[in-house]
Amino acid sequence: MDPLRAQQLAAELEVEMMADMYNRMTQACHRKCVPPHYKESELSKGECVCLDRCVAKYLEVHERMGKKLTELSLQDEELLKRMQQGTGSA
Amino acid sequence: AAPPPSAPGEPAPPPPPLQYSLLLQHLVGDKRQPRVWDPAALGGIPCPPKSEEQKMVERGMERCPFKAALACRGGGFVLGGAFGIFTAGIDTNVGFDPKDPYRTPTAKEVLKDMGQRGISYAKNFAIVGAMFSCTECVVESYRGKSDWKNSVISGCITGGAIGFRAGLKAGVIGCGGFAAFSAAVDYYLR
Question: Whose CB among A26, A44, B23, B75 lies 3.0–4.6 Å from B146's, allowing a Cys bridge?
Answer without folding.
Answer: A44
